[in-house]
Design a protein that fits this description.
CATH architecture: Sandwich
CATH topology: Immunoglobulin-like
Strand order of the largest sheet: 7-4-3-10
Radius of gyration: 20 Å
Strand content: 25-35%
Shape: elongated
Number of helices: 2
Helix content: 10-25%
Structural class: alpha+beta
Number of strands: 10
Largest sheet: 4 strands, antiparallel
Length: about 210
């Protein structure tokens, strides 16, 4: 309602936080992989992009300060820091592996970074792990829906988020292949799970913030 004022409390680091407020920001992590065809070699059969994007491909820079993509140790400089939109890394390789994605928030959030695992897929289910049937024009796209949940966020960070006018993210090579999200029933299940986790976190935070008798 107009005119409502959120109540605040002072957190453990002396910063004002909004009591009973939850901010949920949907994101997508994904990879787009192309077979290189005749240009493929034993160590580079595919070119691929790994990314973190907004659900509607909006710019995430007002929330996210940095994303570190941890590639397979066989890559040169496997820990790749990206500090501006689009939050993505482009590479070539031959094998599938788990990519650890670490997301850092702006300083005024006073939130720890979060980590998300994403599996790089180079082959479609019907390819059987072989390049014989792969097309150089149709990529293998793997995306996962997730949410950034800020429970009782810092007041300054909440103001930054609420006052932001969403804008499209900068151009990405992978953008033409982004998937549409998602079946509503799946999102409802995920949202319900996130809310339960947030409630549990709020209970633990209140216990931690409570003064010792």
């Amino acid at each position: 309602m107009a005119g409502d004022v959120e109540s605040t409390f002072t957190g453990s680091v002396g910063r004002k936080r909004l009591k009973g407020v939850e901010v949920v920001y949907p994101i997508v992590t994904g990879t787009v992989a192309f077979f290189l065809g005749k240009k493929a070699t034993g160590t580079a059969s595919h070119k691929w992009t790994v990314y973190v994007r907004g659900l509607k491909n909006e710019d995430l820079s007002h929330v996210i300060k940095k994303v570190t993509f941890y590639l397979h140790p066989s890559f040169n400089n496997p820990a790749r820091d990206v500090t501006e939109s689009p939050f993505e890394v482009n590479e070539t390789g031959w094998g599938e592996f788990e990519i650890n994605i670490k997301i850092y928030f702006h300083d005024e959030a006073f939130e720890d970074p979060i980590e998300i695992l994403h599996h790089l897929r180079l082959y479609a289910d019907n390819d059987g792990g072989s390049t014989a049937q792969q097309s150089t024009k149709k990529p293998v796209v793997t995306e996962s829906y997730d949410e950034l949940v800020f429970n009782e966020p810092a007041e300054a960070f909440h103001s930054r988020w609420r006052g932001h006018d969403p804008a499209p993210a900068k151009d990405s090579q992978a953008a033409p292949f982004f998937l549409e999200f998602a079946p509503q029933q799946d999102l409802d299940k995920i949202n319900a799970l996130r809310r339960r986790i947030a409630q549990q976190k709020a209970g633990l935070l209140q216990q931690f913030e409570a003064p010792m008798s």
